[in-house]
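Title: Prediction job returns without error message
Component: structure pipeline
Severity: low
Priority: P3
Assignee: unassigned

Description:
Job completed but the reporter wants confirmation the result is attached to the right record. Sequence as submitted:
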Amino acid sequence: MTGGKRSTHAHRPAAPERPRGRGRGGRLLMAALALLVLATAGVGWVYLRLNGDIATFGEEGLSDNRPAASDKGQNVLVIGSDARTGGNSELGGGDKHDIGRSDTAFLLHVYADQEHAVAVSFPRDTLVDIPPCRLPDGTWTPARSNTMFNSAFSVGQTAKGNPACTQNTVEKLTGLRVDHTVVVDFQGFASLTDVVDGVRVCVPNDVYQKDLNPKRATRGERIFAKGEQTVSGQKALDYVRLRHGIGDGSDIGRIKRQQAFVASLLKKVKSEGLTPTRLLPLANAATASLTVDPGLGSADKLISFAMSLKDVDLHNTKFVTIPWRYQGARVAVVEPEADALWAALKADRTLDGQNASGKNGDAGPSPTATASPSPVSGRASPSPSTTAPGPVAWRPERPSG
């Protein structure tokens, strides 16, 4: 795949790479819960409420040279946005006059049997090739190499971001066609965790304001005390955004904590059931925080898509991170492990080599994997040394409990 349409007009400079240390994590979980909520919302009395709240982004920004469509499962790109619009700046989304950014994204592959799924996270600092992307004035940027993954969302420097550019980048990186793209914001996540009355977490040590905002001159007030506690709203958002003060301080460690939080959150929602009284606030919070591709731009399309996910079991869902290693202060994709992962998903094989296409057949080759727990406490698995020359093996993270 070589990218999309090109223009003869002058190219606008792409958005600058964002400095490290301005943590904006936690989008993985808001998006995962939003999808779960929508998967339960296939009832008529929710339909009209949903239909008026669904925002879409234009398909004109998608590449003309995309991977072929496949009937072997479906791929959903989920992007967490700290867009400054709609009240998000008050929740930690930054200056309301700044551009929208994305720090965490994952590709959810739902297997054709509609019972298994895997979510592959892309660290924000991963160095990738970004293909030509459309700017607001209709021109296209030149392709860029060795660029941080999260900078794709900022191409064009608009308040709402550029989800089409991120989708183009993921398709180029993986060789997989992205069937749908969903963008979720800060405000939606805070509302969702409020509706479910919070999630229990275990914080391994006291956490202070400076851990959330390293630019502070002083330690500030304690925002989390060591031990078990229930977090919701702003507190939940702070917990999943934390990069410093918990674990090893890396973005990879934060991703693992987010993945564990997702598992706990989804487990709670499913265990409590969804009555009409509980469902409507969840559905409203989910749809009000979403921006989707045109293929999901109406209530009937969104509900139809979501209902196709309703039989995916959490115990059959794996959370993994793209095979990676440190390259200086950034993250590099490790080959051939990454190619093996994409090949397995393209063939609709689970990470342990099983055929999940819903058809009989031999499992065939598959990337090797060993299970590893994802502690809600935030203790991340040891990160590779920044001087390690060899590739780092990837390991699927299975939700605990």
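Comment from assignee: result matches the submitted record. Confidence is low (pLDDT under 50) at residues 1-31, 40-45, 84-95, 361-401.
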